[in-house]
Amino acid sequence: MLYNTTYTNKEDQNAIDLSVGRAYGFLERIKLGGIGSKRMIIEEVSPNLSHITNTISDTNYANIELRPRGILILINKGLSNYTWVIPFYHLVIYKINGSSIHAQGKYIHFKNTRTFKENKRFFDKLLAIKVKFDQQYIF
């Protein structure tokens, strides 16, 4: 699900919270060692996400935020902010020349730059939380 979060909208915020859970509290953030990634450069997006990236040759940036049942990818386009909500059961991560996140028929590929390499600990934490979430549903 993709939301325009430039301005606060209570209905969108409630839908996000229902989908991936409420944001972690202060103590939980400290225990996890942070819940957000550093800013990463977007190299490529799927055609159905291309309307939220800059069409000029500007650099596109995104951040990832952890939630209890999924992640939020926060994308900046000029003065607008977009949030792509991905529950863990939809999330697929590929590490090919950077990192690629796939879900709901869409994908976003992050460039393999210094800022991406600084986020290695964050991606390790993300994968550990996803595995822990998936283990609840092993049959």
Walk me through this protein's architecture:
27% of the residues lie in helices and 33% in strands. The protein is α+β, with helices and mostly antiparallel strands. The protein has a single domain (2-130), classed as Roll (PH-domain like). The chain has an eight-stranded antiparallel β-sheet with strand order 1-5-4-3-2-8-7-6, covered by helices on one side. The longest helix is centred in the C-terminal third of the chain and has 15 residues, at 120-134.
Question: What's this entry about, in short?
Answer:
With 139 residues, the chain is α+β, with helices and mostly antiparallel strands. It has four helices and eight strands, in the order βααβββββββαα. The chain has one domain: PH-domain like (Roll).
Strand order of the largest sheet: 1-5-4-3-2-8-7-6
Order of helices and strands: EHHEEEEEEEHH
Main beta sheet: 8 strands, antiparallel
- Work out the count of structural domains: 1
CATH class descriptor name: Mainly Beta
Mean pLDDT: 90
Please provide the count of β strands. Answer: 8
The poorly predicted ranges are none
DSSP strand content: 25-35%
Q: What's the gyration radius in Å?
A: 15 Å
Structural class: alpha+beta
Features:
8 strands; PH-domain like; eight-stranded antiparallel sheet; 139 residues; alpha+beta
Task: Describe the secondary structure blueprint for this structure.
Layout: E1 2-4, H1 10-20, H2 26-32, E2 40-45, E3 60-67, E4 70-77, E5 80-87, E6 92-94, E7 99-103, E8 106-110, H3 114-118, H4 120-134
